[in-house]
Specification:
single chain, alpha/beta, Rossmann fold, 2 domains, binds nicotinamide-adenine-dinucleotide
């Protein structure tokens, strides 16, 4: 019988991986060499560093991560050892793009701005960035794109230099964390790049904490009281900087991708790879979609209010922010524990596609926007 060690926070892990072998669930940060020694497969999230230190002497021949990012995995080492690897690329892209627009909509409501008067700089235009760019265009925002690797490998003419994209009203980061090469992203946004932002800019980071120099960001926010930041990812998680939490407008504990559908897709993608690797048939299927939930919102108060009413009924980003802000008053050890605890006990959140909006009165313009965000619309 296969022995599968899985992070206890992976949705449906026991139910799904249990169709293949014996499953042992453990907290991600407690997965050590002793725990994995006699395992055949190891399934992690971003909290477990998978490298020689962890795997030496084990018989693990498959590593899966139920996440999009893979910066916690030493893939060269896995390759050298002939260990198969699978990630969950794209699994939670919808959830992250929806988080970004929950944040943008909240900030627009804070200030009374109009989407169509704003520019949106998207850095990294892959699975998540391309969704964010599409949503921005749909709302009439002036969308500026930066993605040097994609600019080189495609014939697309619509990419701009980073420095230009950093002048947008809202700048959002969707790059992987990489530490070497000409496109490395560690501290991509450092003191010098922060200096290029507008004094009243909004900076959103849902990629990886170390893509932004957090200390430089803290100084920049201190010097620019009109600027606002939205951070879901932090340097040194879970030991994050309490002062920075208090400085940002929306602070969340690395949960942008944590919708039920995003997590379930992640589990399913790793499961399929695991079945292929061990040549076992796929027995588990996700349950068929249930009926969508109905929510109501106004159709005659403009795109900003309609989107705010719809999104805030589905995903209350302020509640996530308040939970982490409350913890910022704790001592550093408690804050780190709370950060992980908030992730572990994250309330159920569904993708926008799981809701039907009843618009009253009907507005075709608003209905088109909401459908673009994958809401079903009952107009
Ligand atoms: P992706 O691989 O589809 O896209 C990443 C894009 O970034 C690619 O197009 C790549 O060419 C581009 N890129 C690489 N280096 C760059 C650079 N220096 N400057 C500009 N662009 C660069 O990845 P994705 O699915 O869109 O995810 C992006 C990142 O989001 C992931 O790597 C992961 O770290 C993070 N993520 C976070 C959460 C969360 O919960 N906060 C969830 C999922 C993913």
């Amino acid at each position: 019988m296969l022995k599968i060690i899985a992070d206890e926070n992976i949705l449906l892990a026991e139910q799904v991986f249990g169709t293949i072998g014996e499953v042992v669930l453990l907290p991600g940060r407690e997965l050590d060499r002793a725990a994995v020694r006699d395992a055949d497969a190891l399934i992690v999230r971003s909290t477990t560093r998978v490298d020689a230190e962890l795997l030496q002497g084990s018989r693990v021949r498959f590593v899966g991560t139920a996440t999009i990012g893979t910066d916690h995995i030493d893939r060269d080492y896995l390759q050298q050892r002939g260990i198969a690897f699978a990630d969950a690329a794209g699994s939670s892209a919808d959830a992250v793009a929806e988080y970004v627009f929950a944040a943008i909509t909240q900030l627009v409501i804070d200030t009374g701005a109009r989407f169509r008067d704003l520019s949106l700089g998207v850095i990294g235009v892959g699975a998540i960035g391309s969704r964010v760019a599409r949503y921005g265009r749909m709302l009439g925002m002036n969308v500026l794109l930066n993605d040097p690797p994609l600019a080189r490998s495609s014939a697309r003419p619509d990419f701009l230099p980073l420095d230009e994209v950093l002048t947008a009203d809202i700048v959002t980061l969707h790059v992987p964390l990489t530490r070497s090469g000409e496109d490395r992203t560690v501290h991509l946004i450092d003191e010098q790049k922060l200096g290029l932002l507008q004094p009243q800019a909004v900076l959103i980071n849902t990629s990886r904490g170390a893509v932004v120099d957090n200390q430089a960001l803290s100084r920049w926010l201190q010097a620019h009281p009109q600027a606002r930041a939205v951070l879901d990812v932090w340097e040194n998680e879970p030991a994050i900087d309490a002062r920075l939490v208090q400085q940002v407008r929306l602070a969340t504990p690395h949960i942008a991708g944590y919708s039920y559908e995003g997590k379930r897709n992640g589990t399913l993608m790793v499961y399929r790879a695991l079945c292929r690797e061990f040549a076992v048939p796929e027995h588990w299927q996700p349950e068929p979609a249930e009926e969508t939930h109905r929510i109501r919102c106004r159709g005659d108060a403009g795109a900003e209010i309609a989107l705010y009413e719809a999104v805030s009924q589905v995903y209350d980003i302020e509640a996530d922010n308040e939970r982490l802000q409350r913890a910022a008053g704790e001592n550093p050890h408690e804050l780190a524990q709370t950060f992980d605890h908030l992730r572990k006990t994250y309330p159920l959140r569904r993708d926008f596609s799981q809701y039907t909006v009843v618009l009253s009165p009907v507005s075709m313009e608003v209905a088109t926007i909401l459908s673009g965000f994958r809401f079903a619309v009952d107009a």
